[in-house]
Amine oxidase (Cucurbita moschata), 1306 residues
Amino acid sequence: MALSILFLFLFNFILPSFSHPFDPLSPLEIQIVTSTIKSNFNLTSRLTFHYVGIHEPNKHDVLLWLANPRSSPLPRKAFVVARANKQTHEFLVSIADGHGMIVSQSVYRGSGFPTLTFEEQTEAIDLALKYPSVVSSMEKRGLNVSNVVGSVFTIGWFGQAHNETQRVVKVLFFYKESTVNVWVRPVEGVETVVDLDQMVVTDFQDVQRCVLPKSEGTDYRASSMQPPFAAETKPINVVQPLGPSFVVKGHTVSWANWDFHLSFDMRVGIIISTASIYDVDQRKKRQVLYQGSLSELFVPYQDPTEEWYYRTFMDAGEFGMGSAAVELEPHHDCPSNAVFFDAFHGGQDGNPVKLTNAYCMFEKYAGNIAWRHTESAIPGELIREVRRDVSLVIRTITVIGNYDYILDWEFKKCGSIKFAVSLTGIMEGKTTPHKHTSEIKEEIYGLLVAQNTIGINHDHFLTYYLDLDIDGQENSFVKGKLTSFKTDGSTPRKSYWSVVREEAKKELDARNLPTEPVELYIVNPNKETTIGNQVGYRLIPGPMPRSLLLEDDYPQRRGALCDHNVWITPYNRSEKWAGGMYVDRGRGDETLNIITQRNRDIWNKDIVLWHTIGFHHHPSQDEFPIMPTLSGGFELRPTNFFERNPILKMKAP
Amino acid sequence: MALSILFLFLFNFILPSFSHPFDPLSPLEIQIVTSTIKSNFNLTSRLTFHYVGIHEPNKHDVLLWLANPRSSPLPRKAFVVARANKQTHEFLVSIADGHGMIVSQSVYRGSGFPTLTFEEQTEAIDLALKYPSVVSSMEKRGLNVSNVVGSVFTIGWFGQAHNETQRVVKVLFFYKESTVNVWVRPVEGVETVVDLDQMVVTDFQDVQRCVLPKSEGTDYRASSMQPPFAAETKPINVVQPLGPSFVVKGHTVSWANWDFHLSFDMRVGIIISTASIYDVDQRKKRQVLYQGSLSELFVPYQDPTEEWYYRTFMDAGEFGMGSAAVELEPHHDCPSNAVFFDAFHGGQDGNPVKLTNAYCMFEKYAGNIAWRHTESAIPGELIREVRRDVSLVIRTITVIGNYDYILDWEFKKCGSIKFAVSLTGIMEGKTTPHKHTSEIKEEIYGLLVAQNTIGINHDHFLTYYLDLDIDGQENSFVKGKLTSFKTDGSTPRKSYWSVVREEAKKELDARNLPTEPVELYIVNPNKETTIGNQVGYRLIPGPMPRSLLLEDDYPQRRGALCDHNVWITPYNRSEKWAGGMYVDRGRGDETLNIITQRNRDIWNKDIVLWHTIGFHHHPSQDEFPIMPTLSGGFELRPTNFFERNPILKMKAP
């Protein structure tokens, strides 16, 4: 309790940026950490770094430190996952005075493997492209080998016993002649399996010769376009003559009534920590979110045939939403008033890798209204008050091969935090001999989107980790079930609905399916408004179609994060991964579904909200050869958090 | 078929604005029409005009005319609903050469009454405020009568027989002393019933003396605010140095690849007609939407007690979404690059009433991305293509007493039409003696949002009328049911989903509940893409919690538009009203639920899509005394309508 009170003063101090406990590792720190491991570790095979990031300090220590940031900085520690001797090694390395020290070291012996590195993917592709059988297969098809490109596909897990599961991937091939849109021109039938630890091709197949779809009309570069062009409109821009309103010190951001810490992680991308909002009526900062980020992204394709069945990707844990984030293009990826930030992560060799323009921050004014009213009930008076809706957006874009994920955090002055997920990029094409739907007699697991090209049905399920701390750590989860009631007949009305409060005492009580009308609250049961409502935030869920895989199917076991759209767990620093920590070839033994089976107490505890949103995607021609953005999102909205509308006293501009 | 082909040429001609068949009645036309009725109609009591609008011409005639707009204009006809002699009269009046002629005239003898006029509401309030018992009730409460304001409440229908149903409303009272936020200060316990035809008070009640909630902190005017103020941010604006890209000729709008006709109606507000999109690949305009608008808005409150049970409003049919549209404030209600338009409707006396800035049109750039991709699979090449998402918005804001509805149409270059519904304004407060939730032992049907004030639970259900004509009139509705399948075991994968096509042959087949995973298509079964997919649009539905009223409860019978989220009917010029045409005190005998029981053929017919979106609203303190905007929406998205992405060839700006 004392901690919570102290926490409130946190953001009144300007912190030296380098000392914030959640600051990502600096390039120098990355170097120190990986050098320490290299020099202290007996190598008999090569050592590859798969994750290098800040080791999250103990929450208690962070809150203590934040309450008194003039005290000495918290010790810096890094968590590292490396691969050597065909084993996954975990290290904890402390950093002090420019030196690193291995604090702990262990070998992970469970199922699954760490995130793939960019470098080993490149190496595997190079290897496969030079593999003699691949070369001869390409030549047999009359293809110019120098125009063949490769891509790494993780292969999931399908019931193999632990000792049968190797760290292998498939390398598949695409043809880039006449178009850069390689994804719609797979050289299907040829595939290689590469063992990433030994970096050797372990399997090769050339099972069938498929047609190569034509390249015409598939390129998406402006430079390759011929008239007629799509309709143009006149220039439009967002301008801020006095500059942006946000202030960034180190990794701490202040904007309007919000303060938060912003970090960037190899695995999940943007992490927002210790977000608090200034309550103008109470004249103090109030805690909202201790930490939040994307946790996992599950993409099961729905073609069960030999060539496609294994495509059941876990993009965060397998490819890294941070390390696969792409450089943002000013004026286009983010509007002209955006500010761009670089980020660093550890490369496979342990050296820091710079991501230029890894994320952007901008104020958004989409022409919307924060609140308004025109009053005509009062004779002789014209009353009209309108406030514009201006918000703060933090954007990152991650490209996993063919697909582009635009992920936005949006902070609103009314206290809401909105999350937007936008899907664009290129749908993976599967080749088919068919040029017209009339020729199709069999199940094609998708839609013919162009001649010889099927867009395969698939899903995107994104699970967010949201450690809300509403006015303190001890929070609870309440479902407000909208329930029909019959009246007693004392008026002509026969029915009404009311909200039946259901308190989630245990983890299994909290799980939710999005089919029933329910309001979902995270409340602080120890804190009431002056008129007695529990302070809280409400989750307005995103789209969440249920998964349609069978419960005992392997992808569904690994991707059990989509069994429900809401889960609550007690805070546990080591529980961050909705699909488990080691998801490449993992067996789903650490998913939210498994974690919550312990059915721990969650009432009046430090709890974490996990929210899964999803998209079923049955492709259409209009999405070929590149896909107009499809968006969804969700909102955390203050609900009896404030005594009254927190932007009532917003001045008109 | 010939018609459809002709239609395609339609927008290549510039039409003289005055002659378009869908143009709203001009002020002169309104005057001619109502004068004609007045002079031809034998009056024994007063005549009040409740609806004056264009009589929609026969679709066949419109399409013929549009195919050859140089031919003589279609005859102009007006449809008028008036009240006289306690009867509802319907008139069809032709207008030619500056003269009107009554073409047909009838008395409506079914259930329900026409839309209330603004003038009769004012008159009823004035009458009630001067009613001696009201004055003395106010004085008994120590209230200054000159500070009391009134508001008209429609009272629904609760099983009364036809001859028992009078055209009466309740006038309720609110106190404006010290605050203009009258809605949170009801003078509860006092109510009057006013007969609108006779314009007399027919009933009066002073059942209980309730507490009057305090005014402090309820005013929302900037001028009444004291520091501290909510956090401010620096100026931000949308600028278009070369002006907007849309061209408006009369009521015809061209923007980017879109052309459509824009009208404004007393009852439903914005009507978009004959919207077509230019297909850059086919180099021609293609039909999308023959006509679309909001049809009805049902707002049942969930307090069944004597004072509140009847509050089950049908805002479009009872109050008029067009006639209750408010003047938009430049720079605030719409961004600075918006263009504003006036509209006219017929007043109660038949004279035209001008609505200044009734709607606005602006190009929107919210910083979003239309499509993008970064390609890293091709060694040595950096490929990044990003296109910004700029759209066209048409906005109108309707205020029904306390609530403000912001209704946007958004046209996107990718072919999507998006609909946004935003709720703001003031929640109706119910008084209570309670100042703290701990005092509440009984069901309060809502939440204590301030001392002595309950925000009452309620819903908003909005049904849109969408007469899609995808590449012609004959269309069909198809549900693509996402269905789980077991595999044959030939691969390790056990399951997948696929789309099972279900064709809706009859009206009852088409009704949909939003609980199952399904894709909803309007297709043209006579038209395929070159590779054989049926051209169509997909409805991405909005939020739609099911109604929680009992099926046989009177409000649910009147508001049966919320029984399903999708309905399909064969086009019928007279079927425009999801809740029926005469909804004030109506018995629900013309709702979509009733209409569709005829179970007409809808396959390969000229069909209409009706879509209902809804919000359950359990209030919170953060929404008091004025509500931060809550938004929802839906999308019509081209699905195999184009051969490929229609904005592939959009130039980078």
Observations:
- The mean pLDDT of chain A is 94.
